[in-house]
Amino acid sequence: MKLFKMASLLIITSLIIVSCKSEDKKEMASINTADIYIQGTMDAELTSPPYVPAPVGNRTAKKLLVNMEILEKEGTMSDGVQYVYWTFGGSVPGSFIRTRVGDLVEFTLSNHPDNKLPHNIDLHAVTGPGGGAESSFVAPGHKKTFSFKTLNPGLYVYHCATAPVGMHIANGMYGLILVEPEGGLPKVDKEYYIMQGDFYTKGATGEKGLQPFDMTKAVKEDADYVVFNGKVGALTGDNAITANVGETVRLYVGNGGPNLTSSFHVIGEIFDNVHVEGGDLINKNVQTTSIPAGGAAIVDFKVDVPGTFILVDHAIFRAFNKGALGMLKVTGEEKKDLYSGIKQEGIYHPEGSTIQTMPESKEKKKEAVSTKDKTLAQKIADGKQVYMKTCFACHQAEGQGIPNAFPPLAKSDYLNADVKRAIGIVLHGKTGEITVNGKKYNSIMTKQTLTDEEVADVMTYVYNSWGNNKTNVSVKTVKEVKNK
Ligand SMILES: [Cu+2]
């Protein structure tokens, strides 16, 4: 609850008045944030990465109108590799929101009518249930408004929290919201917005073409791409961020995850100040700062010499083999007294801008030995395990599905009408319009990577649950559908 300045002020005060009690501090801080008076209304400036809106400076707290649109759209992950991103405001990470402590943010979330899925937003800067997720759940072609007061200064992640949450985040649904302290952060010359994310594709790293999201790899945390700002090369070459010798640079760095922690480092620089985890605590003279998934840090440093400084996740294979690499190009006079080496651009980028192709595993996936004489009860029990691991995120625990997104499996007329068609959906995935119990769905079910036995078990479990027609699906039938 403390303001940045307030914190240091309190330290000084407590040094002078040794008797200062901690209760008094708490009281002071809460009065200053929750009761800050709102004067007037303004539209929030939103920016796409790597840019940030203008600093708040000395402005008073206001009613701040934020209008954000969700867009599902195809983009480029790497040379020749396309990916369907789900975005807040059309970019990955989503639009940067800049507020000050005490603002009353009126947030309107619109879901574009061409989108396929409902979404919502959970802002870590919100004090309230679900960080706004419950109030902002919005179907395609609709919009929702809710409001919150910014009580705690700091840099916060926001993300989609619609089931399956991991999939929405993995597809790019995250961004940053900054809550500046009273009077704003200290002035610097350049500010940029960078956010790391890990991506999971059906094909191997670098495999060309439109790559669908891979749920199995995501669950295993086996990322094909680890990148800054949504794609390989978002911050390299002509896209590099820039500064001049002698300037101070502040980076607002977030990590959307969904899985990996970032070891954020700038090669050839030392962070003068790091707002650890995006909060009030300032650490000085830092080489590498750890940014957890769903967390952030504010770093600043003065650039003293010219050259290209490489931004990396220092878990270094991610940088050179999976894309977590950016550039800060600093121009100006050489400072031989500070650094006398040969200036060489791109020295830490030997693999070139395109990603290395990983050697493909020659080993064939072994199929679990199928137990022919498994009882129906055993199949149902094993099938439930598969369901809770694989299907549950979308179709939900009781097979009830999610309105407008994931069709029900409970009492599903579509399921009960045709066993082989249903098996085919689990084996191959499904897109296009279908009608289940009188309601239309037009969405994507990704192909499930399961053994034939697992498919037979999970389908048997589904058919023998929630009022379905009790079909016992055999491995033989699954193989028939597969080989058709
Ligand atoms: Cu979403």
Labels describing this entry:
484 residues; alpha+beta; Immunoglobulin-like; Cytochrome Bc1 Complex, Chain D, domain 2; 3 domains; 6-stranded mixed sheet; 21% helix; flavoprotein; repeat
Description of the structure:
Homotrimer. It is an enzyme of class 1 (oxidoreductase). By secondary structure, the chain is an alpha+beta fold. It folds into 3 domains: 33-186, Immunoglobulin-like; 191-338 and 345-354, Immunoglobulin-like (Sandwich), CATH 2.60.40; 357-362 and 371-483, Cytochrome Bc1 Complex, Chain D, domain 2, CATH 1.10.760. The protein has helices at residues 4-16, 22-34, 133-136, 165-170, 215-220, 317-321, 376-395, 413-417, 419-428, 452-463, 475-483; strands spanning 41-43, 46-47, 63-78, 81-88, 96-100, 104-111, 122-123, 142-149, 154-159, 174-180, 190-199, 209-210, 225-228, 241-244, 248-257, 262-267, 271-275, 282-286, 288-291, 295-302, 307-313, 325-331, 430-436, 439-445. A hairpin with a 6-residue loop joins strand 17 (271-275) and strand 18 (282-286). Helix 9 (419-428) crosses helix 11. Mean pLDDT is 87; it is low at 1-30, 345-349 and 352-370. Bound molecules: copper (II) ion. Copper (II) ion binds at residues 86, 119, 160, 162, 168, 173.
